[in-house]
Design a protein that fits this description.
The chain has a single domain (4-167), classed as Four Helix Bundle (Hemerythrin (Met), subunit A) (Up-down Bundle), CATH 1.20.120.450. The protein has helices at 4-27, 31-35, 45-63, 81-101, 104-108, 127-151, 161-167; strands at residues 110-113, 123-126. The chain has a two-stranded antiparallel ribbon. It has seven helices and two strands; from the N terminus they run αααααββαα. It is mainly α.
Length: 177
């Protein structure tokens, strides 16, 4: 049975690999498809993906036991695919470090969330809850992106946990009986 830290590490490795699939799919789309307002949680496909990146950065920097500065985005223009790809490389490198350094004690440490920053109240959230929240947040927006891609007849890069588990040796094949 995997420990909670092992499960979290696996989930974040899986999410990172799945995110690469979305960036690859985005790279095949015309720029106008990436920047078209779709009336979703955030206007464009890149905005939705960028929001997920922002959530990862916002929470992971507080979960980390080390400092990592924000990227300096050009906010005068909507993000380009190249901007999103660059940010993804940076964020994922930081997440890998957070996951490598994560200890059982860290899971009980808390992160402060201020009222008014996406929250109706001030609170202290255990790191474990923040990390599981990020898994949920990622899956929510991945589903949204999938639906938007299907609306334009683009196959979403669905990469499920079981396929990932087989590819990474977490789930073993059994010989036929």
């Amino acid at each position: 049975m995997a420990t909670e830290i092992e499960s979290l590490r696996a989930w974040f490795a899986y999410l990172a690999e799945a995110r690469r699939g979305y960036l690859e799919t985005f790279s095949k789309l015309p720029r106008e498809e990436l920047s078209r307002d779709r009336g979703a949680s955030f206007p464009t496909l890149l905005d939705i993906f960028g929001h997920s990146q922002g959530a990862l950065y916002y929470w992971m920097k507080d979960c980390a036991r080390f400092e990592f500065p924000p990227q300096e985005p050009d906010t005068s223009n909507p993000p380009s695919l190249a901007d999103v790809q660059k940010d993804e490389r940076y964020i994922q490198s930081q997440i890998r470090r957070v996951m490598a350094e994560l200890t059982e004690t860290d899971l009980d440490r808390t992160v402060h969330r201020e009222k008014g920053k996406g929250s109706a109240h001030d609170c202290e959230i255990p790191v474990r809850e923040v990390l599981w929240h990020l898994v949920e947040e990622e899956l929510q927006h991945r589903g949204e992106i999938n639906a938007l891609l299907w609306q334009i007849d683009v196959e979403a890069p669905v990469y499920d946990w079981i396929d990932w588990g087989h590819a990474n040796g977490r789930i073993q094949d059994h010989p036929p009986v």
